[in-house]
Design a protein that fits this description.
By secondary structure, the chain is mainly alpha-helical. It has one domain. The N and C termini lie far apart (67 Å).
Length: 87
Amino acid sequence: MKKIIQIDTDAAFVEFLKKSTGQKAASKAFLYAAQSHSSNVDRIAHLEQQNADLKAENARLYDVINSIEHTYREIQEVLGQGSLDLS
């Protein structure tokens, strides 16, 4: 069943939508954007989770590096060589 929907929006947004969807007709651009919305929401959620996971891994690795640097400095002090600036 086809339905006609009238959307009140400015011409700049319509042109943006046509350009970003690759559609020449405004109606097709709106339809394309609406149909793509669900998969875009899912993709964004996936990317946000991936970003959070990478931030957590980055924090974990930062802690590992700090632990290694701390251990290195302790070993250098025990050996009487002083500590080296690793930064």
